[in-house]
Amino acid sequence: MLSAQVAQVDWNSFIGGGKVTRGVGCAKELCKEVLGSISGNLVLITGDKCMARKGPAATVAEELLDSGRLVLHLTLATEPEIVWLDEARIGLKPYHPAAVISIGGGSVLDAGKALAALLNERGPTQDFLEGVGSEKPSGKMLPWFAAPTTAGTGSEATTNAVISHHGEHAFKRSLRHNAYHPQGVWLDPQLLQGLPKEIAAASAFDAFTQLLEALTSVHLPPEIEDVIIYGAALAAYSLPKFVMECPTPSPQVGQAMLDAAFLSGVGLTRAGLGTIHGLAGKAGAVSRIPHAVFCANLFVPTWEATLEWFLANPDSPGVSAGIKRIAQVARFAGWVEQEKDDVSALLVFLETLRKWKEEFYFPPLREYGIGKFEVEEIVASGSDRNSPAKLGPTVWEQLLQKAGAVI
């Protein structure tokens, strides 16, 4: 049933006229397509360990660097920060870049998207960020090309880039505009080769988080409901296999997780997100916990609380639709028989997530310095966002404690 649905997804329609290429080895065409469509100097952004791993992603990057074109190579070791972006903008300006290419995980993609946009703006990066800046982005953007090497945030399909500032007055905010779309995306499972198991697991849980939050959002547009159900079912079916197989995932499982991650970005952009992401922003500001690790730690306890709230409040707005969609995911993923009623399917879904709690380990929040003060900060700015389940501050604090915060 899942394989029959993939042909019905209009992948290109989600990135504003850009082109999505999927399949084993498709990223081998990246260099040719970029050089054939862009004249001028290029900016390449990779993770700081990409080239040392000597895998397929490094091969694609090396082909660009050896192409004879001036390619300015920037590396990123953390999630993108204001200082990194401002320094990059200053350093790149004299070269008048014509395009930006990101080959990496969600942070690398966010950095490339932000840089492609901010090279068209005047003024410090912070001026253009939601909630802290005074300027609205123009929406102008250099051509941006994305090849994800983790199956996580789906940044290639979102219209925002998340940027951090640590230290005094720390924050984590988005640079956002509806025009921020890639010109080309390559979803190639070969680029996942060499992905460490712990990064694979956290990234996959981030994608599944976004899909489930979008799926249960009170603002899920009807026209994307089927593709988000499909994406969530892909993640539900593929996630355990993907993590088990990494660092050498099979092409089929790798493609499924890349597709799910892309659709999670679609969900984020079109439907908004829920409780976990309503806590994640502040967590990433008051500590240096990677976003995916935070989401992975919160995943099971938060969905336990959310689905239990659904069952206790079936008549609340948005709950019946959420139960129905979760039940569909369980059916499509093969967790329950097709004839199972919605509540029974939801209960199986919930029990499966509880089993996952025993199967997957992530470093607890306390290992990233999240203690009593940080919990207070996270809860004070928390939100259930677009979730029908209104869990509230007391439950949020309990979830953080279950995820290993010291309270």
Outline the fold blueprint.
Elements: H1 2-6, E1 19-22, H2 30-37, E2 42-47, H3 50-53, H4 56-65, E3 71-76, H5 82-92, E4 99-104, H6 106-118, E5 144-148, E6 160-165, E7 171-176, E8 184-187, H7 197-215, H8 225-245, H9 251-271, H10 275-286, H11 291-312, H12 319-332, H13 342-359, H14 372-380, H15 392-402
Parallel strand pairs: 1-8, 2-3, 2-4, 4-5, 5-8
Antiparallel strand pairs: 6-7
Structural domain tally: 2
**Low-pLDDT regions:** none
Query: Within the CATH hierarchy, at the fold level, what is the topology of the largest domain?
Result: Dehydroquinate synthase-like, alpha domain
The portion of residues forming beta strands comes to 5-15%
Strand order of the largest sheet: 1-8-5-4-2-3
Could you give a short description of this structure?
This protein is an alpha/beta fold and 407 residues long.
Structure characterization notes:
- By secondary structure, the chain is of the alpha/beta class.
- It folds into two domains: 2-190, Rossmann fold (3-Layer(aba) Sandwich), CATH 3.40.50.1970; 195-402, Dehydroquinate synthase-like - alpha domain (Dehydroquinate synthase-like, alpha domain, Up-down Bundle), CATH 1.20.1090.10.
- The chain has helices at 2-6, 30-37, 50-53, 56-65, 82-92, 106-118, 197-215, 225-245, 251-271, 275-286, 291-312, 319-332, 342-359, 372-380, 392-402, and strands at 19-22, 42-47, 71-76, 99-104, 144-148, 160-165, 171-176, 184-187.
- Strand 6 and strand 7 form a beta hairpin.
- Helix 8 packs across helix 9 (251-271) and helix 12 (319-332) crosses helix 13 (342-359).
- The protein is globular, with a radius of gyration of 20 Å.
- The N and C termini lie far apart (45 Å).
- The model has no long low-confidence stretch (mean pLDDT 95).
